[in-house]
Amino acid sequence: xxxxxxxxxxxxxxxxxxxxxxxxxxxxxxxxxxxxxxxxxxxxxxxxxxxxxxxxxxxxxxxxxxxxxxxxxxxxxxxxxxxxxxxxxxxxxxxxxxxxxxxxxxxxxxxxxxxxxxxxxxxxxxxxxxxxxxxxxxxxxxxxxxxxxxxxxxxxxxxxxxxxxxxxxxxxxxxxxxxxxxxxxxxxxxxxxxxxxxxxxxxxxxxxxxxxxxxxxxxxxxxxxxxxxxxxxxxxxxxxxxxxxxxxxxxxxxxxxxxxxxxxxxxxxxxxxxxxxxxxxxxxxxxxxxxxxxxxxxxxxxxxxxxxxxxxxxxxxxxxxxxxxxxxxxxxxxxxxxxxxxxxxxxxxxxxxxxxxxxxxxxxxxxxxxxxxxxxxxxxxxxxxxxxxxxxxxxxxxxxxxxxxxxxxxxxxxxxxxxxxxxxxxxxxxxxxxxxxxxxxx
Length: 442
Ligand code: ADP
Ligand code: MG
Hints:
Layout: H1 3-18, H2 20-27, E1 31-36, E2 39-44, H3 47-56, H4 60-69, E3 74-79, H5 81-103, H6 124-135, E4 144-148, H7 154-168, E5 174-178, H8 179-191, H9 195-203, E6 207-211, H10 220-235, E7 239-244, H11 256-262, E8 266-270, H12 275-288, H13 295-304, H14 309-326, H15 332-338, H16 351-362, H17 366-370, H18 376-392, H19 397-403, H20 409-425, H21 427-440
Parallel strand pairs: 2-3, 4-7, 4-8, 5-6, 6-7
Antiparallel strand pairs: 1-2
Helix pairs in contact: 1-2, 1-4, 6-7, 8-9, 12-13, 12-14, 16-18, 18-20, 19-20, 20-21
Bound molecules: adenosine-5'-diphosphate and magnesium ion.
């Protein structure tokens, strides 16, 4: 028997013993590497796999292999090397950035990089503008004014400019300051007669990042200082980047001349992420947290947590903690239970509702789509309805199948795959499915 054959046989037995869910999550990603004398070496994606298996099924793989080989076997785990190297590279880069930031007294989160920022329709424009500014500070959009709701990535994006600059332009003198801190510094400088020092600090930089500018509302001395700071920097062609929770015209009590300075360069907004972007963000964050999530769980979270990226992160952290505490695999049921608090109280979407919307959209009758008919006009809408049900209802595949006129779960899986494949290839089709999604869940 080759190594692959031995492993293949073991997989079948292991799946039988522990069930498909846990198997898919924890066993399937393992690869056999070598069998040398007694020692069987396995490669796992990361150390959590090794720990998890050793904790919960310490003898399972061993005994299965022994059963197949008819002799004693000891196991050795190896962490996938490519990933180890990649993780080391990223961590080293992060550490070095952290040190450089600290040495220069810049309080940026070193993890907020362009690499870690997922883009989609909702934030593409702001991200592209930020990147352009990071590449040529003071040259393109000045000031760059980024606005958007809470937890949508404003701080991340303006920090990414700073982190990119500290990595690639060593001699660029920059400062990052939340506007509240700026206000405190102004107040303190005035009180202690140190305004000259403040001016020197802020008016001699190449790049000034000001976060959450809306807090200068009503603060006249701060606004005055800010106005002259921006003017001076602008005239010297030094870059200013500002973030805000609303556009300049909606920041009420600021002076007109300051407002007009904010609007002089480019104004870019960040909207709440659309479904696909949420899915991509969850993928990325889960990978960063070393969380192993199945697609149905990811889709579930993306469908439920809609407006705020920070909350998406909160969800993942809680799920990770729950999984670590209980040792159970993360499935949709667990996600539902753990995420109750995050999920806005809203009526659950039913398959009936989805069918109704899909039928209206395609001009079909409910009884047609539920019948056994297989004509093309009906088959496609039915597949789309199954796909939408899987995304939106959190029902089991069997229940979805039942709701669609007694189809089995394999039919539902097939339908979802068809729709996903076509969405990936066909932009018009993708848009149509998105439209339906929004009709059902605005
Ligand atoms: P804001 O400043 O707009 O309130 P933050 O920049 O603090 O929001 O973002 C909140 C969290 O969400 C951060 O941890 C950030 O990394 C994350 N985040 C926001 N948008 C994205 C994105 N597009 N891709 C990856 N992470 C994001
Ligand atoms: Mg912020």
